[in-house]
Automatic annotation (TrEMBL):
This is Cation/multidrug efflux pump. It comes from Pseudomaricurvus hydrocarbonicus. Keywords: Membrane, Transmembrane, Transmembrane helix. The chain crosses the membrane at residues 37-58. It comes from the Bacteria.
Length: 217
């Protein structure tokens, strides 16, 4: 898995920086020791940041071709109120309550430029956000909205957001945001979400989902 290997490589760099920091901190001499100590502490901090960056990169999955990244099913609790069950590609199940008439799933994507992609480097993705939406603009503006962060950067270092700020200076990799179009929620509906190189696509997997889509078209 490329992104796992990339995370390991970054983690090794973090470890090397930490070892250099420890060597600097424990070398002798008073004035030089103070200077080295300051430098050593700075290297420790840098090592920690690099390590957290590696941890965040590890949360991304490699995209080989069009891939099913999740399924989502709905149970109606009351009018414009649904329980959504999201199951990702690893089989991890999450339950959410969504308000509104439609749902949308977003993903963060790292995409290599064609000059590097031809050497086998594949895009990486991470599911990012699930949201409900009201069909009526007035309800969308005035009613309760439900938005969930699916994969927060628990380390506090967000590799995608950091790269998004600097990607104009790094031409060989793009940080993109992929979103499926808003799709209707309906009691018993089941959808599959596929990720392609151009973004997310949702497909109905049962009759309630197909009926819901026809009703909204």
């Amino acid at each position: 898995m490329f992104y796992g290997g990339l995370a390991i490589a970054v983690a090794i760099i973090s470890l090397l920086v930490l070892l250099r920091a420890l060597k600097t901190l424990f070398s002798g001499g008073w004035l030089m020791g103070w200077l080295k100590g300051t430098l050593g502490l700075a290297l420790v901090v840098l090592s920690a940041i690099i390590g957290l960056f590696a941890w965040d990169v590890f949360s991304y999955h490699e995209l080989l071709t069009e891939k099913s990244v999740a399924t989502i099913s709905f149970k109606q609790l009351e009018d414009q109120h649904y329980q959504a069950i999201l199951v990702n590609a690893d089989g991890v199940e999450q339950k959410f309550e969504l308000k509104g008439d439609q749902w949308q799933l977003d993903a963060r994507i790292f995409k290599w430029q064609p000059s590097l992609a031809r050497y086998g480097l594949k895009p990486g993705y991470r599911l990012d956000r699930l949201a409900g939406r009201y069909f009526s603009l007035e309800e969308e503006r005035l009613s309760e909205r439900t938005v969930y962060d699916l994969n927060p950067s628990i380390s506090g270092v967000d590799a995608w957001r950091w790269y998004k700020m600097v990607d104009q200076n790094i031409p060989w990799l793009d940080a993109l945001y992929g979103s499926a179009t808003y799709v209707p929620m309906s009691d018993g509906a089941l959808y599959e979400i596929n990720l392609t190189h151009s973004g997310l696509i949702s497909r109905p997997l049962n009759e309630p989902a197909e009926v819901a889509i026809r009703r909204w078209q």
